[in-house]
Amino acid sequence: MILTIIFILSLCVYILYRISTRKFDYWQKKNVNYVQPTPFLGNYSGYILLKENLLDVVYNLSKLFPNDPYVGAFFGTKPTLIVKDPEFIKLVLTKDFFYFTGKECFEYTHKEVITQGIIFTYGDRWKVIRQNVTPLFSSSKMRSMFRIIEHCSGVFENLLDEESLAPEVEMKSLMSRFTMDCIGGCVFGVDINAMQEPKDNIFTTMGCLFLETTTSRGIKNVVKAIWPEIFYGLGFKVFPTDIHKFFSKLLVRIFEARDYKPSERTDFVDLLLNLKKNRHIVGDRLQKIKTGDEGADSKLELEVNDDLLVAQCVSFFIAGFETSSNSLTFTLYELAKNPDVQKRAQKEVDEYIKKHNNKLDYDCVKELPFVEACIDEALRLYPLFGVISRQTGERYTFPTGLTLDKGDRVHIPVYHLHHDPEYFPEPELFKPERFYGEEKKNIRPFTYLPFGAGPRVCIGERFAKMQMLAGLVPILKRYTVRLAEGMPETINFEPKAIASQPNIGVRLNLLPRNN
């Protein structure tokens, strides 16, 4: 009996081993240099075992075969091409975008309501949604939103009076409260009040629920990314249904408050109300990008149901507060480490405030170029997403003759590009001058990708910059930031996080300036 059990277990292990390694000769057959994989884990063991952030794993793999435009690897059992050369990255993100419209495991985005949002969805559906929400980010809409951001910046300045009294301040939570209020006002037209009432704030709870970094969430992220057929086949979901339910009820309340009619705000909710009223949205199919065909089949009509609206709400909510708060935190951390840079940024803010009578203006992005350069440099050191993932929708052949099969994964190593001394000399140093004035023109295209590039470039890039500047100005004009006692000079990334975030609290001192 014991021998029988041992035999069956051994047979099962052998079968699983064979299944997990059956594609491990994939890159060899295609004459691509690759890293010898480990059964089940491939070359991503650090990420799969929740020991390293995905960007760290891909960064280390990217340094191998330095003269090759790409490196073959295995994301668990999935063949994955790490594309390093900027010219090849350009093909993936722009020129031949038609073949790479979706992120990895895109064919499963319909399995959850939240993943039907613009951030996760793909193909023709993504294209139609993108076309219909793009008007929200026009210059006139941005100017209108800035009035809300300016108000939040004023509330934030008053909040700093209280926070600065503490011996040290944990910046990530503080900046999250600011960006949360900004996104609540700009997107939903509601006062979240996270800055003044942070405890038991339901929006903060939902944000934490979406971005939780627990071990169980980390395991879900990994299994879903590598083996989505197993993950969803067993009935699992990445995101708790509480998020979907909350935003569904929120939308109903907001719609009722506006009597289901667009208001004069012309904000995101008005956009959703118009979509709901029309019941359908129409846009171009991606085939038009490939062929330029203007025929009847080049258009696609999507039904507007509640799930589609909720998915877009969650996408804009998360993208609007989490990424900006992380970037602000990293920027302040680097300014605290580099007092000379901080003084220069403060000087620029002082001149701006004097010129505008202590008020923020919509054109602050243009008039605070060095502060913006500090943000850009922080985004280089700590990109929001250190890896851009894509999956081929059709067979695709690179100029080198390498052909990727449908469903193959592509990883673009953003963190590696940003830290490559060939593109950014002394890459570990915080040098905002790289992005200031004429120096910015020296950056090689497709080596700096904090917001992505091409058709899927972050739709809210301008909004994010506007929001981040409005968060930095109140701090720089009244305080000097310093590292709190015991705060390390380097920060690692949280292994289980979806986006790049520090694995420890960023503790800084806010010291009142003598001006």
From TrEMBL:
It is found in: Endoplasmic reticulum membrane; Microsome membrane. Heme binds at residue 458. Belongs to the cytochrome P450 family. Its cofactor is heme. It catalyses: an organic molecule + reduced [NADPH--hemoprotein reductase] + O2 = an alcohol + oxidized [NADPH--hemoprotein reductase] + H2O + H(+). One of its GO terms (molecular function) is oxidoreductase activity, acting on paired donors, with incorporation or reduction of molecular oxygen, reduced flavin or flavoprotein as one donor, and incorporation of one atom of oxygen. Pfam families: p450 (PF00067). GO terms for cellular component: endoplasmic reticulum membrane. CDD domains: CYP6-like (cd11056). Its EC number is 1.14.14.1. This is unspecific monooxygenase. The keyword Iron applies. PANTHER family: CYP9F3-RELATED (PTHR24292:SF54), CYTOCHROME P450 (PTHR24292). The lineage of its organism: Eukaryota, Metazoa, Ecdysozoa, Arthropoda, Hexapoda. It is a peripheral membrane protein. It comes from the Eukaryota. It comes from Bombyx mandarina (Wild silk moth). InterPro entries: Cyt_P450 (IPR001128), Cyt_P450_CS (IPR017972), Cyt_P450_E_grp-I (IPR002401), Cyt_P450_sf (IPR036396), Insect_CytP450_Detox (IPR050476). Keywords: Endoplasmic reticulum, Heme, Iron, Membrane, Metal-binding, Microsome, Monooxygenase, Oxidoreductase.
